[in-house]
Amino acid sequence: MAALTADILPSIVKAVDTATGGYVLTMDVGAGDDIYKGAFVAEAPGGDGIGPALGTSVLPCIGIALQQGLNAGGSAGDLIVDVLAGIFAIEHDVASTTIANLMQAVFCDNDNDLYLTATTSNPFGYILNFISGDNCVVMHDPTGAVVAAQS
């Protein structure tokens, strides 16, 4: 790439509903999986697409579904959905948080809930800012969550 000669706005700096940053990817829905708009998604068992991020799969959360894909009776790839993937920030509740949890790794145990404990949960990212109650700004960065969980 050539050096810049004018101002640009990087394509990854954009807002999608209440999320900022990331990339929108079109992905196959896994066999027998139902994905709802706003669901946290991970690689489906067997690697045949994406499914809801469930604690039993213990895979990093790929991102958030931007549309619904109900594929309960279908085969892998019968449906596709757009997924906000990569590194992005969202405002979301994280169970039992305080200001002391800043920069702590968070995990999703299902397609909608975030927790501070790994147990059988999928790496999601980390707490970027504490707002109030359980409400936080969470940075989706599954690679960062994996590193933080191991340290």
Overview of the molecule:
By secondary structure, the chain is mainly β. The chain has one domain (18-150). The chain has 1 helix and 12 strands; from the N terminus they run ββββββββββββα. The protein has one helix spanning 142-150; strands at 15-16, 19-28, 34-35, 40-43, 50-52, 63-65, 69-70, 80-93, 105-108, 114-115, 122-132, 135-140. Strands 1, 2, 4, 5, 6, 8, 9, 10, 11 and 12 form a 10-stranded antiparallel sheet that branches. It has a two-stranded antiparallel ribbon with strand order 3-7. Strand 9 and strand 10 form a beta hairpin. The termini are far apart. The relative contact order is 0.20.
Share of residues in strands = 35-45%
What oligomerization state is this entry in? single chain
Proportion of helical residues: under 10%
| Strands, count | 12
Query: What structural category arises from helix and sheet content?
Result: mainly beta
Order of helices and strands: EEEEEEEEEEEEH
Count helical runs.
Answer: 1
Low-confidence stretches: 7-16
Biggest sheet record: 10 strands, antiparallel
Radius of gyration: 16 Å
Distance, first to last CA? 37 Å
